[in-house]
Amino acid sequence: MNEYLIETNNHMEGIQKVYRFPNGYGASVIKHKGSYGYKKGLWELAVLHEGELCYDTEITNDVIGHLNDPEVDNILGQIYRLWKIKKDVRWVR
């Protein structure tokens, strides 16, 4: 998924990685003092659509915390495969 990594930022004394996929979706993956899982060295992921936080996918309606690296990669793959038909808000893969 590194080919879709568009930004790596210092964020709140931690790190943020931003991914963007060809389907218009992406993810913000963070690990900082306020993120879910930080104390255990784990990641928090938020789904993005057109660069904005998105809480209405089949993947989640919130952020997902306490993720290890393979779990982040798995969810990034799910986001990569999302396709939204906007006219009637049906989801297909």
Structural class: mainly beta
Count up the helices: 1
Could you list the spans in which at least 5 consecutive residues all have pLDDT below 50? none
When the domains are counted, the total is 1
Instruction: Note the main sheet.
Output: 6 strands, antiparallel
Query: Mind telling me the C-alpha Rg?
Result: 13 Å
How far is the N terminus from the C terminus? 18 Å
Sheet-strand content, in percent, reads: 35-45%
Q: Please give the share of residues in helix.
A: 10-25%
Order of helices and strands: EEEEEEHEE
**Judging from the principal axes of the Cα atoms, what is the shape?**
globular
Number of E-type strands: 8
Global mean pLDDT: 91
What labels describe this entry?
single chain, 93 residues, mainly beta, six-stranded antiparallel beta sheet, two-stranded antiparallel sheet, 1 helix, 8 strands, 13% helix, globular
Explain this structure:
- The chain is mostly beta strands and 93 residues long.
- The chain has one domain (2-92).
- The protein is 13% helix and 43% strand.
- The protein contains 1 helix and 8 strands, in the order E-E-E-E-E-E-H-E-E.
- It has one helix at residues 69-80, and strands at residues 5-11, 14-20, 25-31, 43-49, 52-53, 64-67, 83-85, 90-92.
- Strands 1, 2, 3, 4, 5 and 6 form a 6-stranded antiparallel beta sheet that branches.
- A hairpin with a 4-residue loop joins strand 7 (83-85) and strand 8.
Which SSEs are present, and which pair or pack?
Blueprint: E1 5-11, E2 14-20, E3 25-31, E4 43-49, E5 52-53, E6 64-67, H1 69-80, E7 83-85, E8 90-92
Antiparallel strand pairs: 1-2, 2-3, 3-4, 4-5, 4-6, 7-8
